Amino acid sequence: MRDGSSVVRGLVILVVAASWVCGCSSKPDAERVALASQPAAADSNSSSAKPPADTAKPEPPAAASAISNSASAPSAAEAARPSGPIQFTDVTAQAGIHFKHNSGAFGKKYLPETMGSGVCFIDYDNDGWQDIFLVNSMDWPGHKVGGLSYPALYHNNHDGTFTDVTRAAGLAVESYGMGCAVGDYDNDGFDDLYLTAVGSNHLYHNQGNGKFVDVTAKAGVASPGFSASAAWVDYDNDGKLDLFVTHYIEWSIESDQYCSLDNKNKSYCTPQAYKGESSHLYRNKGGGVFEDVTKKAGLWDPTSKALGVALLDFDNDGWMDLFVSNDTEPNKLYRNNHDGTFTEAGLTAGIAFSESGRVRAGMGVDAADFDGSGHQGLLIGNFTNESMALYRNDGSGLFTDEAPKSGLGAMTTSSLTFGCFFMDYDLDGLLDVIAANGHVSDDIAVVQPTVRYAQPLGMYRNLGDKKFEDVSGKLGKAIQKPTVARGVAYADYDNDGDLDLVVTASNGPVRLLRNDNANQNDVLRVKLVGSKSNRDGIGARVTLVTSTGVRMTRMVKSGSSYLSQSEFPLTFGLGKPGKPLPGRIEIVWPSGGQQTVAGLKANTFVTIREGKGIVATEAIRFGEAK
Q: What is the pLDDT of residues 35-84, one digit of tens each?
């Protein structure tokens, strides 16, 4: 971020229960559904325990009522197919979500106050419906102004509403939280939670009975300091998820610096006023224990001021690489050397600096094949007057910023973007760009009258041929409402086939924005379950080949955006009903195994298990959970 009169900166699964059709359960379907769908509060007296870590991978409860043997949707559901313009509707209140981020701000303008916080989608109870975890910060020591500030876990009730189960789940713990990451680190079938913070981070082990237990000390992943985004990644392809944690700057209340916009009042300082902190890589040793291999892996870099991390395999060699966005420092692209080490390639790849050779305020980030080339490009959120970056990967190890030519550059010049990602909001098969915007300084108008603290979301539709158009003003009032947005994540929380949004705000209320009418287009949704690979399938590359020969490639991933994580299931938009049709899916698993799956139908959600193929098929139910 920048300061002065130029720019000021403060600081800145639809998981269908892995419903494996195994024929090994003697429980009737109704009973299995009841077990899978109970909220955490209902499990408070349960004596069931989560299986030991790293043992044989058990089958999680199956959401049996959601699974059909036929891929064809019932005629009633087809008759209810929506029509009309696509709109994002704010349904936060009617969904029963009442959460406001507490930055602890009381006038001192401590740097972390303007940075948070994040949101993660997690199907923690394996009922096939995405739940929501919201990170919170807290009041500063000696300045308590209210009660305790907890994060929030909202259980999806399957009817468009949510229930707050934070206390029952064991997550009512105060910290100055920043972000979160979801992953099944012990491969027991239940996704775990990692929470980053200013201070000590927390690893919460999912017990499988609606409860979480803090296992940070045993795991050795506290990673003290000023953490930001995090991602689960199997960097050594051993089938166990490792953990990468970004770190921002060296900061404490005692070391907080004084900065001013108007030379009269204190403002949030820029990161240039502080030293950086190295990010950390933790290798999963098994047994619930991790080893800090940052230096051994060649990742130690205290000059970095990292805020975002994206997983990608930019050279398509089957090994996960890491892209790290840095604030006022060069961005980093770490190439995986296949031997437990990484080589920094950001400068030679062309993504370390802007096209003019300057560092930018890299914040949120995502990686995806947005141009249909078969190679993952990069999206980066930057500061006001810097524009977002949209890097095309030419497949040779070089990246080119297409933001100016694509139109995205001019459309994002006046925005300050934190969370961002690629998402096919209209299900036309092309990945669009979503941006969560909001300035870092509440008094920015003092020196820049045309710049606003609260800013609307940015929605940029992919027109093909690496061109984008701004559709923010066409998608409803909820998109146009100015907020001080930070984290943003997507999921099909109502299981109607299209992707919805959750957006957090710095020291403000969260918003759940439901996508209405995008599912008038056809869609195929895919969930992977690893066997030799990690259970979540993180790092798997999935290519859908349609009946017309179009190839769409997606990757299962953790991290991305800013302090947040979206759902694991992949969404392939197919466009207008009937054409094209899904042909086959080609999967390259992290284990190196390759798998081709055919017999697919549009408007279905399929679960594919490594080495077995489709183990469950569910028809998309249009408009049922509104």
A: 333 333 333 323 333 333 443 334 443 333 333 333 343 444 454 788 89
The order of strands in the sheet holding 332-336 is: 306-312, 321-326, 332-336, 342-344
Q: Residue 515 in contact with residue 501, Cβ under 8 Å? A: yes
Nearest CA to 288 out of 241, 341, 236, 244 is that of 241
Q: How far apart are CA 315 and CA 497, in angstroms?
A: 31
pTM of the predicted protein model? 0.89
List of residues 6+ apart from 1 with CB closer than 8 A: 7, 8, 9, 10, 11, 12, 270, 271, 327, 328, 361, 383, 440
How far, in Å, are 38, 132, 418, 514 from residue 476 at the CA level? 34, 23, 21, 11
**Strand boundaries in 372-427, DSSP class E:** 377-380, 389-393, 399-401, 417-423
| Cα(375)–Cα(77) distance, integer angstroms | 37
CB-CB contact of 86 with 461 (8 Å): no
In angstroms, rounded to a whole number, what is the distance separating the alpha carbons of residues 550 and 148? Answer: 52
Asked if omega into 580 is within 30° of 0 (cis), the reply is: yes
Pick the closest to residue 152 from 471, 598, 512 (CA basis): 512
Strand-strand pairing, 152-156 and 417-423? unpaired
Q: Are 616 and 16 in contact (CB under 8 A)?
A: yes
Tens-digit pLDDT profile for residues 302-329 = 999 999 999 999 999 999 999 999 999 9
Alpha carbon 549 to its chain centroid, in Å, reads 30
CB atoms within 10 A of CB 53: 19
